[in-house]
Amino acid sequence: MTMLFSGSMLFSCCNEKQKAQDATTDGASWTVDKFDDIKVLRYEVPGFDELPLQQKKLIYYLAEASRCGRDILYDQHFKYNLAIRHTLEKIYTSYDGDRAAADFVAMEKYLKKVWFANGIHHHYSNDKFTPEFSREWFESALVKYASDVELPISQQELCDIIFVPELYATSLNQTDGVDMVKESACNFYEGVTMAEVEKFYADMADANDPRPISYGLNSKVVKNDNGELVELTWKLGGMYSEAIEQIIYWLEKARGVAEEPQKSIIDALINYYRTGDLREFDRYNTLWVGDNVSNVDFVNGFIEDYADPLGRKASWEGIVNFVDSTACRRTQIISANAQWFEDHAPINPAYRKKEVKGVSAKVITVAQLGGDCFPATAIGINLPNADWIRKEYGSKSVTIDNITYAYDKAAQGNGFNEEFVLREEDRERIKLYGKLADDLHTDLHECLGHGSGQLAPGTKGGELKSYTSTLEEARADLFALYYLGDEKLVELGLIPSLDAAYAAYADYIMNGMMTQFSRIELGKNVEESHMRNRKLIAEWCYEKGKEQNVIEWVKQDGKSYIVVNDFAALRKLFGELLYEVQRIKSEGDYEAGRKLVEDYAVKIDLELHKEVLERYAKLNIEPYSGFVNPDFVLTEKDGEITDIKLVYNNNYVEQMLNYSKNYSFLPLLN
Length: 670
Ligand code: ZN
What we know:
- By secondary structure, the chain is an alpha+beta fold.
- It has a domain at about 5-70 and about 240-625.
- Helix content is about 45%, strand content about 15%.
- It is built from 25 helices and 14 strands.
- Bound molecules: zinc ion (ZN).
- Zinc ion binds near residues 13, 14, 445 and 476.
């Protein structure tokens, strides 16, 4: 599974795409804070008001449960994170000096970064933050404003942790050959070596179990008085008990308003939190993955293992969501017409599937992000993680529409399209239809593209070796691009006109041949398969359409632009390339596949690359984003909730201080 940013969220193969963005100026209203390399956005929760009261209550209770685990994640990331955060917050709130003074401003920025990363190490690079305020200033602030904080370590030690670069330099060290357990500051192991831990779990594992338990998922490993390794399990009565107790409290409330099968699912989760029994966690997961009827859904628990150098310990996360019925209707229409699309695909009829089943992708709206999904989150969920459950029971894969929408909105006005899209009419189309076209591209790619076509007799699959994923992504993208420009989509009511397709085409070609290079270091090749696929398609169409001038490089004021002159001809080229890529897959033609990728997808022109990086850098677009959550406002009568509304708190600092005040259940040392 590929992962970007935090925990349980996956970028599904096409959502990973970095899009060209909308060009209006109201993006600012979606951005609530900016600091360092980060911007914090807000998201909206359309459809919440229309939900029945019972579902609103369910969401509210589950949301409370997902706020209650916040401190667990801080402590998992590093054992002194809670002490540091608490101290910083104490100084921040009681400070009566000049709040515009350089040291204070620098500390504020540091604190904002700590909130964002859920600790003192960067959420993406895992490197410890470097404070930009002086130790001297901080030491006196400590004495003046935080002397009553009962620290588990001395103030000197606390300062050393913050200011000495070598100390706890990274939360996650996975360098080959080092003791990753000793060299990582994360709080999953203490006083043990990597070799000891590996032996400990190797002895526990049963290689013959077809349904292996995820040993170690929910515990910290330490040594007891006899020098033996033992687990401190994260459960009620165990480690993190105080927070888990609160989580259970809200889960029980949620259980009270849930219907079956969700009642039983919540029961299993509560039981798991009470016992720490990993078999119970598996049972919970099998029930959860089988529930396709509940409108409200959630993730709550120790889920992803990316923060552990040994990939065993899971970070705590929580998310609450409900089905986005409008978007689901879109994928249902596409799925219902799956056979029509297959029968008309511009490929050799022998390689068309006789009977095709469209997948109806689920699109959801989140109402709360928590733990490892907060403030940074991704835009899709693909769970559970246990391979045997995925094999026997399947997995749930969903995309989160209101988060992608917020990303899209926030990017408006960041200057990207003004910089890279030459023609006003293209910018206008992207502004009007960019999001819709992008969603449809995703739907067609996921619901139909990957599942279309069939192999020739004798082809086994796997013949394309290392070129498999690039060519497979190209096949799915081409299927989507080809049909985006089909009148059939207008007929089905999915797009108002082919202008939506043209928005997508202009964007796709520009991204493939140019703007996606902003994410690659100068002088490097394109390696990632989605990026390769985009370059392959765009460059191939450029070359094949050169005589007709379908796609054109334009130089203006010393800058390079790529423009599409003939959308209908481009669509035809998409069809032709799809024919060939499908043939390559169906026949397992390794040599032809290799040549396509190597000729079109890998090498970047150095001058162009340099230009793109320079122009992109000038835009000052923060590479990382995260979110603030909405707040719940209850209307009550005689102690009963009669309605729930969402309000959008657009103040990052306020929300963080509020969470720290109301959802801090753990001691400063656990
Ligand atoms: Zn894909």
